[in-house]
Task: structure prediction
Amino acid sequence: MWEYSPIPKEKSSKFKGEARYYYLVTFDVPSKEYEGEIMVPSDEELMEDEIFNKSQVYLMNHFKETFGKFQEHVNVSISEFYDATL
Result:
């Protein structure tokens, strides 16, 4: 499904927990000139919609805390795929 990479040593601090799979989800809020990324861990290989669903709750809470009442357009993409067993 996805082309997975091993976890790079220089990024190992971003990988929390003991999950097998990690998905790097990037986001961009054009109207606020704000961007960032989150790591979505999973013990099972996820489909695209499952990755977005898992990241949605975190992102909406983060945006509410950062911007207050949040009703902005957000660009979200899955940019990297990691397998801790490689």
